[in-house]
Amino acid sequence: MEVITIIGVVIFVIVFKVVLGKHNKDIRESNERKRTGKDEIKIMNVGIFLVIIGLIGVTIGIVSAVYAVDRSNKHEKAILDMYRDCSKTMEICNLILDNNEKTLDMCDEVFNKKTVKIKKLKDSAIIPKRGSNEAAGYDLYACLDEPIIIKPHTTVKVGTGLSIEIPEGYFGGIFARSGLATKQGIRPSNCVGVCDSDYRGEYIVALHNDTDEVRTIDVNERIAQLIVLPYLAIDFEEVDKLSDTDRGSNGIWFYRNKIEIPHPFFRVWYKEGK
To answer: What letters, b where the CB count within 10 A reaches 16 and e where it falls short, cover 212-223?
Structure first.
């Protein structure tokens, strides 16, 4: 708009100079035409023309000023809108940050490493250790005075010499060590042991020998692994009916459309709706 204003002013100046030059020429010639009586009419016409040109220039100036004010108002409004948007964005960001702080606190509570209290019941007991920084399980060691024998297909209780205080809301899961299970056929007899957070006795692992050979557990041998896991505390509500599902009470739901199920004594056919 500033360019339009400048162009208008330039045009006004040029026209004014042309008209003024013509007016001066007319004045010089007026002396020769005084007798005709046309001088006053000529001067009047020139004056009217100058007034018109002036009005045009003033109009251009007013339009330019109005446009500039309107543009300024729009610019100011845009700045205010942007400020409001920024304010809303900041509010949202602050809300997200607040929630993130709460989320981070929850993550710290759930995922960050916790301190678990542990007590040695015997001086020879070994504190559980992880095999690597990314290992989930902590190895449990046999706290023995001498090696023990596990006969084929029998179970022997092996103490760890430790008592552990699991945090509330968690439990200690006793899992088999893959090396001991696959190479020697020795595993926890209950597959996975569950140690509650309020248990304060010695952690004992019942090892079962699945092989036909005698196995030996050496002193301080790694016999199982401890994984501390969270659990969901629930309340049971007795009802007369449960919600319906596509599977329903079928144990093997993908045998739906007359798929034959082999059986040593007979064959069972499942049909839709049974």
So the answer is: eeebebeeebbb
Confidence band for 94, pLDDT divided at 50, 70 and 90: low
Structure tokens at 223: 């016999």
User: Helix or strand or coil: residue 80?
Assistant: helix
66 has pLDDT over 60? yes
Res 73 pLDDT > 50: yes
How many Å from the N-terminal Cα to the C-terminal Cα in the chain?
83
Give the residue from 77, 108, 139 where a domain finishes. Answer: 108
User: In a 10 Å sphere around its CB, with 0-12 CB exposed, 13-18 middle and 19+ buried, how is residue 26 labelled?
Assistant: middle
Distances (CA, A) of 180 to 7, 131, 151, 224: 94, 14, 15, 8
Measured distance CA(171)–CA(198) in Å, rounded = 9
Which of 96-105, 137-146, 170-179 is predicted least confidently? 96-105
Can you give the pTM of this predicted structure?
Answer: 0.53
Instruction: Give the three-class secondary structure for 51.
Output: helix
Is residue 267 situated within a structural domain?
no
Q: Report pLDDT for 264.
A: 47
Out of 74, 108, 142, a domain closes at 108
3-state percent helix, strand, coil for the chain, nearest multiple of 5: 40, 20, 40
Q: State the residue range of the domain holding 55.
A: 2-108
Identify the CA nearest to 57 among candidates 4, 9, 6, 2. Answer: 9
